[in-house]
Design a protein that fits this description.
heterodimer; A: 130 residues; alpha+beta; Alpha-Beta Plaits; two-stranded antiparallel sheet; 4 helices; 25% helix; elongated; B: 367 residues; Cytochrome-c3 Hydrogenase, chain B; 2 domains; four-stranded mixed sheet; three-stranded antiparallel sheet
Chain lengths: 130, 367
């Protein structure tokens, strides 16, 4: 009865390999809506700290905003440490003003962006108010 | 770890030592809030994370007096059944590999990726679902996603039927698995076995059927039972169960109730009390005992996982078999503890004592 498997194997010879040469060819796809890198949009954030309270990995720390960028009365904003983050999106869910900008970006094994600090602060500059 | 005492090739004594794999999750839950505990529960096991979250959340919902909406229950069911499909595919692949049928391992693992993609589509992550929240789910299923899952399930079902046929008819697999590690009905009951291991010994026991949770009370399905009780029966029960799960997912998606699934807010404090909540994980009955003294975090959470029973209580099944059958029997219980994947082989006549990994034992004598 091994014939049935042999037929399957022979059919696979004509197909492309199932594995991907990942770093050489970046063909890895994730489903739409994949929980990837996220950061707080400071034009919306009110600094309520709910995300930092609920974060199960304690990856979110509320930091003081620079003086010239004081965008909410509390003067604080969440910084996500992507090294600690487990991408459960509890912060995205719990946010009362839906301030988190989500993406499907999952390739985060680099030193260039290890926290959401830069991304969050640049969201203000994009807003053109600072 | 399995400590195996042999006389020549025949196994005469087996003792199980689970080692130190305590990660302090139960203690961490006492220190953290109810919501953080939900994510911790999911981290108990990578393969069955959605059922761990489900059993914790349904216990907490009882303590907080919250009822999830019907649509949320259906979505939870879909996620849990997708998880069951990929879990059963994984162990089928592992058993095929241990038997020495590496081609089948590769084929099943390739098709398992389809199910992982579907889970990614529904929850947003291949492995950790994290879709539960007290009083509902965090993410709804829209029409596009629903149609995509339904069309992909057709392919998965076809492949599962093919693998069931291979497991039922292939000469190598049948020779290696039948009459190996046989457990009779009375023995299975006496040793408190759970899940597919128990159902393969002819006992109709399934928490989804006996004590329905989530949407299982509204979904028609049959419990797969076989009477043979050997390793082969356990594998065929799993593959047939995966096919039943495909039907459950299809039914749940086609009969998805209208209405809200995502709650706007969730409670953060529970009443005083205690609750025992149980679900059917892919490996068997999973029980959480949650004690609350009121306030923002649990007083005590006790977890009883199914593999714990299935591995520790089955020492007797290895006796009288050959050493080469030990990894096959062990894998057929679907062990979910990566740290038990070692064997100490003691040969009394030759005075041999050797630590082996499961894979080395499976390949012993061939290299």
């Amino acid at each position: 009865m091994r014939l049935s498997v042999i037929r399957e194997v022979l059919r696979n010879l004509a197909r492309r390999p199932s594995t991907l040469a990942y770093p050489v060819r970046r063909e890895v796809t994730v489903a739409p809506g994949h929980r990837g890198r996220h950061y707080a949009d400071l034009m919306k954030c009110i600094g309520c700290s709910l995300c930092a309270v609920d974060c199960p990995a304690n990856a979110i720390v509320m930091e003081k905003l620079p003086q010239q960028l004081k965008h909410n009365p509390r003067g604080i904003y969440p910084v996500v440490d992507y090294g600690k983050c487990v991408f459960c999106y509890q912060c995205v869910f719990v946010c009362p003003v839906k301030a988190y900008v989500t993406s499907e970006h999952f390739e985060m094994a680099d030193y260039a962006i290890s926290t959401s600090r830069e991304l969050s602060l640049s969201s203000i500059r994009v807003g053109g108010q600072a | 770890m399995l400590r195996v005492r042999t006389e020549g090739e025949e196994v005469v004594e087996v003792s199980v030592n689970t080692g130190y794999n305590h990660r302090g999750i139960e203690k961490l839950m006492e220190k953290n809030s109810w919501i953080k505990g939900m994510y911790l529960a999911g981290r108990v096991c990578g393969i069955c994370n959605a059922v761990h979250t489900q059993v914790y959340v349904q216990g907490v919902e009882k303590l907080m007096g919250v009822e999830p909406p019907p649509r949320a229950n259906y979505i939870r069911t879909v996620v849990m059944e997708l998880e069951r499909i990929h879990s059963h595919m994984l162990i089928s692949a592992v058993v095929a590999e241990i038997v020495g049928f590496d081609t089948l391992f590769m084929l099943i693992m390739r098709d398992r990726e389809r199910v992982m993609y579907l889970k990614d589509l529904v929850t947003g992550s291949r492995v950790h679902a994290d879709i539960h929240i007290v009083g509902g789910v965090k993410r709804d299923i829209d029409e596009v996603r629903r149609d995509k899952i339904l069309s992909e399930l057709k392919v998965v079902e076809e492949r599962l039927k093919y693998y069931r046929k291979v497991f039922e008819e292939d000469y190598t697999l049948v020779k290696r698995l039948t009459e190996v590690g046989r457990i009779r009905t009375a023995e299975a009951l006496r040793h408190c076995l759970v899940g597919p291991t128990l159902r393969a010994s002819g006992v109709k026991s399934d928490v989804r059927f006996d004590d329905p949770y989530a949407a299982y009370s509204e979904i028609p399905f049959n419990v797969v039972v076989r009477d043979e009780g050997d390793s082969w029966a356990r594998m065929v029960v799993r593959l047939e169960e995966a096919l039943v799960s495909v039907d459950i997912v299809r039914y749940a998606l086609e009969h998805l109730p209208q209405g809200p699934a995502v709650p706007k807010a969730f409670p953060r404090a529970a009443k005083v009390g205690e609750v025992i909540s149980r679900v059917e994980a892919p490996r068997g009955e999973l029980i959480y005992h949650i004690v609350s003294t009121g306030g923002g975090n649990p007083y005590r959470v006790k977890i009883r996982t199914p593999s714990f029973l299935n591995i520790i209580n089955t020492e007797f099944t290895y006796l009288g078999h050959r050493l080469a059958d030990v990894p096959v029997i062990f894998a057929s219980y679907d062990p979910c503890i990566s740290c038990t994947e070692r064997v100490l082989v003691v040969d009394e006549k030759r005075g041999l004592k050797k630590y082996l990994s499961l894979r080395e034992l499976a390949r012993w004598g061939t290299t």
